[in-house]
């Protein structure tokens, strides 16, 4: 008995000693609870379209803060069932739960941890993961303090938003987006159980790293939920057998990588590093439907051009080892160097013949390509194919799957494309695609790609001519300059098609992109007048030549600049400034900055309404009977207007145009400028992108018929300024031996 009393006294002394050490030595050095009482989670910068589609996220941690009142019940039930079933009953340390865990382990049942959610909060916020007595004692002290300072709901809210869940995801809302590409409120019971199983080992047992382990943990969670009466037997059976699709990466609601990067740069410039952690949300002017259509149009038509010009051969070749493990490693290594480009997947050929190709994807899936799927690359399957072109085992190729799950061989295009659309009335950007693949080439061709505009520059020269007495009915001689003069010319421009039609109207000349006629017009009105006139549309003189090649588009523009210039014709003569951001908010939705969208007014007028109206009528002729006539037939609208553009040797292909209140520009070309081909023009390169994009942008919009403004008359066969009636103005050009004198308007 004395022995027992002595042992008890010794134990009591030890307890008192530990308690004294804890409160006198460890307690004073504990951190303040500000991190939990004033919780400020690191929430990434997120960027949205005007209709709330997520297009970008930037930050080290994928996290979406969700208040406890908005946390789905199924998620809370799954988590509490596996991590802390008595959370709302204990005071931070669950002695009953710990005892049950020990018994369960002894019986060989579920392996349950004794750490409560509050203890995990204390550890995750303030302590390291080292397994020492000191760390455990500190954890108990902090647990007690947290329980005293916060309500149970507040503690659970902290845990569910802060816990690390693998793949850079913090909190269950961020994990739901990362693993299932859905909002937390939309997860199923099966998905919630899989998420609840991750905290035990978030690095190795998340569904991307090891789906089999994640599935096993999910079934453990579901069994615990069933045992504790949270779900029924029927719910358990359905959840266990539910097929779960794991995306394994952040997939946005709309593909707008170039816009997201533009916005990121602006926000970081203003908010510095805080931009990545404070939960800033930026709302852009993009419309999801317009952006999606533009993205698909650029990719589809760039690939169509690439397919027209033939197969270039595999991207790389490797030797396939005979050992299966070494073979798998070699395939994995080479495919890491050839990442996917959306639906264009890299694969390593393992078998090849003229009738069938078998290849392995980065996912480990083996695909078989045969029949029509081999047609594009058939030249590389011939016995006598050149070595660089030949498809053999070890070749790295690109494959794509169609809507019927059939595989085809394709290739990554070398050519680039771009598209931008603005609201012509206020300048807001509706869609922007800066290139074929942002992850491959981050250069934004819409904002930074200075290229020759070709014939898409002609409307501005024709607009300048209206101010000098020309009208759409003016007859101009479509004959080479050398045929109408005895002078020896240093430059004798040609029409692209080599055809010359003699006297044609200015309207016809623009519709059919007559080079010689355009040069004659510029020669008549004067290069200096034209350069001065270009500034009304936002062009800079220093980007354009002070010679007659100006009218053929030998200067430099960006697609964004060209879109803003065409907007002047589209809206009746007003200059607009492109606008991309409308609102920036903090994590709580409080507005940090608001940029109101305003429509143009008279203060923004840069050309006379008459000029805009008449030029618009000529641009409509381009889509009615000219080089872009396919646009009207394919879109079924009579209010389309625009101009194709093809530079010398077809280095650049353009289409700039508008309808309703949407103005858009499409472009195609190589980053390292070279010819796109002798049979390629703006109408074959850029116009298809424009048509496919505008089909969505114009859906549901009524066709617009413009009313003629004061000061114009439809006389003598076409529109003209009233002051040029009754024999005034320029009636013909280049039809006499000497060119006529330039006529200036009478004083107003």
UniProtKB/TrEMBL annotation:
GO terms for molecular function: penicillin binding; peptidoglycan glycosyltransferase activity; serine-type D-Ala-D-Ala carboxypeptidase activity. Pathway: Cell wall biogenesis; peptidoglycan biosynthesis; Glycan biosynthesis. It is found in: Cell inner membrane. Its main location: membrane. Residues 311-415 form the Penicillin-binding protein OB-like domain. GO terms for biological process: cell wall organization; peptidoglycan biosynthetic process; proteolysis; regulation of cell shape; response to antibiotic. GO terms for cellular component: outer membrane-bounded periplasmic space; plasma membrane. Keywords: Antibiotic resistance, Carboxypeptidase, Cell inner membrane, Cell membrane, Cell shape, Cell wall biogenesis/degradation, Glycosyltransferase, Hydrolase, Membrane, Multifunctional enzyme, Peptidoglycan synthesis, Protease, Signal-anchor, Transferase, Transmembrane, Transmembrane helix. Pfam families: PCB_OB, Transgly, Transpeptidase. Residues 53-225 form the Glycosyl transferase family domain. In the N-terminal section; belongs to the glycosyltransferase 51 family. This is Penicillin-binding protein 1A. It comes from Undibacterium luofuense.
